[in-house]
Amino acid sequence: MKTTVLKIVASIIVVLTAAILVHFLTTNNQALDDGSIRIIIVDEDGQTVFDDDVIFMKDDTFYDVLQREFDLTCASSTYQSDPTCSYIFQSFGYEGRILLGISNDDFSIQTDWADSFIAIEIYDGTDYYLATQGVSNIEFLENDQIRISFRAVTEGLS
To answer: Residue 91's domain spans which residues?
Structure first.
C-alpha cells in the first residue's frame, strides 16, 4: 500500500515538474502594457541606418513590434528567405521565427544564415549583450534599447 501511494505521489511530482518546465521554456515574452523601446539597426558596413523609439502595445512580442514597423524576411523550414514569415520553428526549447532580413524605405539588410546573420543585442545600461532568445521571444520593457545588426559568420559573436 505504501509503495503504491509513493509511486502515485512521485508520478504527480514528475508530471508537475515537466509541465512547469515546458511552460517556462515555451512562454512568449509579451508586453504587459503599452510603451516604447529604442531600436537601433546597423547595416553590413557598420553604419547606423535606424535609431528611433518604436511603440509597442500590450501583448506584443518583439517580433510583432518589428513586423508593424519594418518589412521582415524570415527563414523557411529550409533556411531559405521567406518574406511572408509564415514558418514557425518549433522544438522543445524554442518556438518562433528566425529573422534573416529587415528593411524599410531607407535601408535594407539581408542575410543568408550561412555566411551572415542578424544579431540582436540588449542594452543593459552599460553595454550591449547578445540576446539569448530569438526574435519571437525576446523580453522587453518600457524604454529598453535593442540593437539589430548584420554580422558575418567570420566575425563571430564578439
So the answer is: 2-155
- Range list of H helices, the chain: 2-26, 62-69
Among candidate residues 114, 107, 118, 94, the one with its CA nearest the CA of residue 22? 94
* Residues in the chain, total: 158
In order along its 158 residues, the chain shows pLDDT tens digits of 778 877 787 788 888 776 666 555 555 688 788 999 999 999 999 999 999 999 999 999 999 999 999 999 999 999 999 999 999 998 766 788 999 999 999 999 999 989 999 999 999 999 999 998 889 889 899 999 999 999 998 865 55
What is the count of structural domains for the chain?
Answer: 1
Supply the pTM of this predicted model: 0.79
Give the 3-state secondary structure of residue 32. Answer: coil
CATH code at position 114 = 2.170.130.30
